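pipeline stage [seq->struct] | target=tRNA (uracil(54)-C(5))-methyltransferase | organism=Callosobruchus maculatus | residues=254
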Amino acid sequence: MKQARAKIMLQELAETISTHNPPLAEWVQQQMSIHDGMPCELLDIRYPSTLTGYRNNCNFNLGLDPDTKQPAVGCKMHRYIENFKAIAQPDGLMHIPDKIKGAVKAFQDMLRTKLNRQDIRYAKDLIVRSTKDTLLIIINQNPYKLPRHDRERFENVCKEYFSSGPGKSSGVTSVFSQIDKKRLKSFHLFGERVLYEYPLDLKIKLYPNGPYATHSEAAEIFYKTAIELIGPVENSTVIDLCCGVGPLGLCFAK
């Protein structure tokens, strides 16, 4: 299905080029006669072997379980007409790996057992990021409902729970907090301060809020394919726009 859709998109691209750039219309027709009605060759789709549990960067909302009315961490559900809001557990979501689900469950247990009901309003949502050997959580706090002394108490509970309490068994290696208004700045509470990714055997340092691919294996396939198509040599110049932490450009350089 994706291969067929890609062919349609290329055919639409050919029509757009011919319409908006008439001098190229003849060249486009020549290319389409060579490439089965498309303006260029369409290779087979390349896909990773991991099709479930692949996502390594997830955001979860905080609220109440619709059945138990206890604090819950998961995916927010809305029915605006009925003014219905609830949090659903992520257990059945195939794209989320078990270790991220475990971190969510541990944080939810902490809310239920170590904090008062009113303390839940201090936390707005939870970010969980994982790599091959790290599991990091960022607690996004509500800036409008958190006096400084309460924020410090909340953070101390989180730190103790995951460093030496019941949450230690979840495998969380780092805990950060951040104020919703200042998402670019995170406060380190416990564990490793950075994560590492290893695309094509490179070691790339990632900071808590830094961008990186949400499917590492698929990203590697993309990097390999781009390098294969372009065939860079020693004096090639590669401009990597919107590069994030720069893995594509670094892989080309390697």
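stage status: PASS
auto-comment: Residues 2-34 form one domain. The first helix runs from residue 2 to 20.
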